[in-house]
Amino acid sequence: MRILEDRIVKEGRILPGDVLKVDSFLNHQLDTVLISEIGREFHRLFKDCDVTKILTIEASGIAVSFATSQFFNYCPVVFAKKGGARNIGDDVYHSTCHSYTRGGEYNILVSRNYLSKDDRILILDDFLASGEAMKALIDIARQAGCTIAGCGAVIEKAYQGGAEIIEGLGVRLESLARIRKMSVEEGIDFCR
Amino acid sequence: MRILEDRIVKEGRILPGDVLKVDSFLNHQLDTVLISEIGREFHRLFKDCDVTKILTIEASGIAVSFATSQFFNYCPVVFAKKGGARNIGDDVYHSTCHSYTRGGEYNILVSRNYLSKDDRILILDDFLASGEAMKALIDIARQAGCTIAGCGAVIEKAYQGGAEIIEGLGVRLESLARIRKMSVEEGIDFCR
């Protein structure tokens, strides 16, 4: 998605530890025009998949998922919660993932009330790197017996192996910007 | 906002500790039709205030703010981050608030890059109870020299004093559903 790639080049900042910061439009400040276009693109890619619900994870996946749902006839969005399960009740699906950026393991949780075997789920997230978070969302959707229409990532760090993990689970993956490699010295190189 | 009140009565669950759970449409699963209507209502209330940016707090404020921004000509949304300031950089505004639901204090943070004295800010959140989170957002907006157009809460627990705190700071407040009192035995009574 060219307007997204251009924006990443223009405003993304590469930090030590292989971190790409896109806080000016996706992860802290939200460019709601661009995010609406991201929603339109996810719809174009998955429009024939009879999506009934979008599953994502707090916090940065929420805006993208909301925008996308509008193109899927305002289907519901469910966002998984991270960590300590405060206030969510005991009746949850959960899965564990490892965080490379923050270190350590954390749980993600979804109430059993909001996923069912009748749902055809589109799983969305802002970043795909090692695939840990998306793999956990797939695990939860499968625990609930959902059909998974596919996974969508706004930005994929294609050199970190996440796509192989998701596709190895038998799930279709679409990423809107795929980074082949990046460095402070040489900038960002996309797979095109 | 009558459709919101009706939905709270129909699906809200009152839990011990004076907790109102609205996970089926606002805090975990998102009813994107209702949330779009919430955005339309915030626009109706603040449309003459020359809003240039919406400020909220992760995670449940994000969808409401995204929906509202669409009615304000897709103005940017900034969501404050809670807690440990991972990855956000040092150059932040921060404010501290006390959490009654979780206990203890936590920090909220906004990068200095995304608020300026030229901004006319609409502050939105899903809940207003004691007013701690909204007061911290006002504090941050004032640190940045922004003009505050007003604050909007989707649901206000009007018996917890938050409105008096916000209005005591000289900020206009609009809440879309105002709960006068609630209990498991007697249900929910709205201020109308």
Task: Please outline the helices and strands.
The structure is a homodimer.
Chain A: H1 2-11, E1 13-15, E2 19-21, H2 23-27, E3 29-30, H3 32-46, E4 53-57, H4 61-71, E5 77-82, E6 92-98, E7 105-111, E8 120-128, H5 132-143, E9 147-157, H6 162-168, E10 173-183, E11 187-190
Parallel strand pairs in A: 4-5, 4-8, 8-9, 9-10
Antiparallel strand pairs in A: 1-2, 5-7, 6-7, 10-11
Helix pairs in contact in A: 3-4
Structural class of chain A: alpha/beta
Number of strands of chain A: 11
Low-confidence stretches of chain A: none
Biggest interface, and residues per chain? Answer: A-B, 38 and 38 residues
Assembly type:
homodimer
Task: Please work out how many helical segments of chain A DSSP would assign.
Answer: 6
Largest sheet of chain A: 8 strands, mixed
Q: How widely separated are the two ends of chain A?
A: 10 Å
CA-based shape of chain A: globular
Computed over alpha carbons, the radius of gyration of chain A is 16 Å
Helix content of chain A: 25-40%
Approximate strand percentage of chain A:
35-45%
- Mean pLDDT across all amino acids of chain A: 94
Strand line-up across the major sheet of chain A: 6-7-5-4-8-9-10-11
Order of helices and strands of chain A: HEEHEHEHEEEEHEHEE
